[in-house]
Amino acid sequence: MTSMTRGLACAAFAVTLLAAPLSAETITSGNLVITQPWSRATPSGAKVAGGYLAIENKGSVSDRLLSASTTAAKKLEIHEMSMNDGVMTMRQVENGLAIEPGGILKLAPGGMHLMFVELKAPLRQREQVPVTLKFERAGEVRTLFDVQAVGAQTPAPNAVPKPLPPMPTKASSPIFMPRRRWPM
Ligand SMILES: [Cu+2]
């Protein structure tokens, strides 16, 4: 293979990689099933970002999301939206959020969400941000939040359940940018 064709093959591979949708993770911890934790890329200089996910309680007793933490930001707060003099504002939840038996707690754009406060660096599309969730009964659960495009409204638009091609062992072309992985 000439270096020219190898370069083209790498470029084609990189394009395939970029086009492939991220498969959002599902994590089970005890009676809780956590699906599609995701966030959005932030413009440089932005200090906050939203975090979204769904938590289903398959048990027979209620649990409670107490707090969350991440290495990507100074704080990770639980926020709810409320009307204040006709203006939608968000505020931090004091005592966590209950997840009733058989119920699903949804954190999504426009509603309850996690808030990364004082980001250490902008979040970039396609990277994964480690978040530790703390529950009253299920304890601590480690998750990875998939970072979608700026302004994304859903965890994976046009998602097709298809595994990503294997990652090359080392970057063989300057066109290939390895994903940053935040430490857990
Ligand atoms: Cu918020």
Give an overview of the whole structure:
- The protein is mainly beta and 184 residues long.
- It is built from one helix and eleven strands; from the N terminus they run H-E-E-E-E-E-E-E-E-E-E-E.
- Strands 1, 2, 3, 4, 5, 6, 7, 8, 9, 10 and 11 form an eleven-stranded mixed β-sheet that branches.
- The protein starts with a helix and ends in a 36-residue tail after the last strand.
- Copper (II) ion binds next to strand 9.
Which descriptors would you attach to this protein?
single chain; 184 residues; mainly beta; Immunoglobulin-like; 11-stranded mixed beta sheet; 1 helix; 11 strands; 9% helix; globular; binds copper (II) ion
Quickly describe the structure.
The protein has one helix spanning 3-19; strands at 26-29, 32-40, 48-57, 63-70, 73-84, 87-92, 97-99, 104-107, 113-119, 128-135, 139-148. With 184 residues, it is mainly beta. Strands 1, 2, 3, 4, 5, 6, 7, 8, 9, 10 and 11 form an eleven-stranded mixed β-sheet that branches.
